[in-house]
Specification:
Length: 454
């Protein structure tokens, strides 16, 4: 259950040299591609129907040219890869993971993201916008309303200045790196909240399409919360692309995973996506965030009607409604009068950077913890063990304090157990028991080798 070795940790740059292969199964796309290549002065060898080996002194520039001159649909259909000296199974693995031509060209265009990913802790930070209750009393909501939580918003520092999330996520989507940036956003939000959040809620954005398997892809998120000293029941995981969710079964699985761990879930931008009401009724999120266009049109009658309907549906199953992007007292009062529970926006406070502090308490080792620096951590039934990597592995078994018996129990228990190197940013797993294989669908060899997808 590790992202170790996965492309969500650190995406690879486009090779500067090598053999460019392009593949398409569409005849007219092949013709258009050949025309672009000839106009660029490149020569081609058709190694198989639709498989072109391109000979050019500058494959990267050719990718940029082809990406511009083909239609977006054509560029999204063509597969492209720059090969080095791969042979045999290594060649097959590279070919099967080949990105589209548009993605490969975007990876060239947005190569400035790679240094950010390579120095994640220094490059990324979160700012936090307050979320307030609108139910303080009969008086109109004010800028001094009671803060009940914060939404974490991702920022990045670059040599050219601060990079905002819209630009980052658009570039990452083009390059096929959304899963990387989404993981960075989650872990950065949690890390930056350490020491100051108190008992407030923390809203953490996530893209459901980047979560391949919750048990694997969200392991780094849970670890980041633990290291920050945050309780899972403080966390509200917020879907940020509701208009693009097409697999509701998968989103239900992700929601269920979070809820099983005591977290809350939120649906963002309700009213912006074509399937929003369907998602609301089916998923029953703990918190529903109204789309900003609806909120900012309050107190217009049409917006009031939409807000009233959403409040009625959400309150019927016990959820809460949040009005975001509130900018005026009039909007705040109208939302409160319609039954909206929470508010967020510049009227209540702008996003601000907060100084993370050391976690207030270190995990307490359980009685009878293994020797050689091995500690049981956390209270969740899905046990994790943190191991001193400097300790010889044979010290983790067969000692006089009953460790051998504990080891046998861990092997046979139906509870998922993994042993990780807790000193790494993404702790590598060095042991999983059979229950972990049953729960995740991965073999232990796949999890230990970091071969799990995400």
């Amino acid at each position: 259950m590790s992202c170790l070795g996965c492309s969500c940790q650190r995406p690879a740059p486009v090779p500067a040299t090598g053999t460019l292969l392009l593949s398409t199964s569409v005849a007219h796309t092949r013709a258009a591609l050949l025309a672009v290549l000839r106009a660029a002065g490149a020569s081609c060898l058709e190694r198989a129907p639709g498989l072109l080996e391109v000979r050019t002194p500058d494959a990267v520039r050719l990718l940029e040219t082809a990406g511009r001159q083909l239609s977006s649909v054509e560029a999204a259909e063509v597969r492209a890869v720059i090969l080095g000296d791969e042979q045999g199974d290594a060649l097959l693995a590279v070919a099967l993971a080949a990105p589209t031509l548009s993605q490969l060209a975007a990876r060239v265009d947005h190569a400035d993201l790679l240094p950010l990913f390579a120095s994640e802790l220094e490059s990324f930070r979160a700012v936090y916008q307050p979320i307030v209750t609108l139910c303080d009393g009969p008086q109109a909501p004010s800028a001094q309303a009671t803060v009940v939580g914060y939404e974490a918003l991702l920022r990045a520092r670059t040599p050219a200045g601060e990079l905002m999330p819209q630009a980052m996520f658009a570039a990452a989507e083009e390059a096929g790196w959304l899963h990387v940036l989404d993981r960075v956003g989650r872990t950065t939000a949690l890390r930056g909240a350490a020491g100051w959040l108190g008992n407030a809620l923390l809203f953490v954005n996530f893209l459901p399409t980047t979560i391949y398997r919750p048990q694997v892809c969200l392991a780094t998120t849970e670890r980041a919360a633990e290291l920050a000293g945050l309780r899972l029941d403080q966390l509200v995981f917020e879907v940020t692309e509701s208009e693009r969710v097409t697999d509701l079964n998968h989103l239900e699985e992700v929601f269920a995973y979070y809820r099983e761990r005591g977290c809350k879930v939120a649906l963002d931008d309700l009213g912006a996506g074509y399937s929003s009401l369907n998602m609301l009724v089916r998923l029953k999120p703990d918190i529903v965030k109204l789309d900003k266009e609806i909120v900012q049109r309050l107190p217009e009658q049409a917006s009031r009607a939409v807000v009233s309907a959403v409040v009625a549906i959400t309150h019927a199953y016990g959820g809460q409604v949040l009005a975001e992007c509130v900018e005026t007292a009039e909007q705040a009062t109208a939302a409160r009068d319609l039954g909206v529970d929470l508010g967020q926006g510049w009227f209540f406070g702008r996003p601000e950077e907060r100084m993370a502090q050391p976690a207030t308490a270190e995990p307490t080792p359980a009685a009878g913890a293994w020797a050689a620096g091995v500690n049981f951590t956390g209270d969740d039934p899905a046990v994790a063990l943190a191991v001193d990597p400097a300790a010889p592995l044979d010290q983790h078994r067969g000692s006089a304090d009953g460790s051998e018996l504990v080891g046998r129990a861990i092997t046979l228990t139906s509870t998922m157990v993994s042993i990780v190197d807790a000193q790494a940013i993404d702790p590598p797993i060095i042991y999983v028991n059979e229950a972990s294989e049953h729960a995740t669908g991965y073999l232990s060899s796949e999890m230990l080798d970091g071969a799990a997808v995400s």
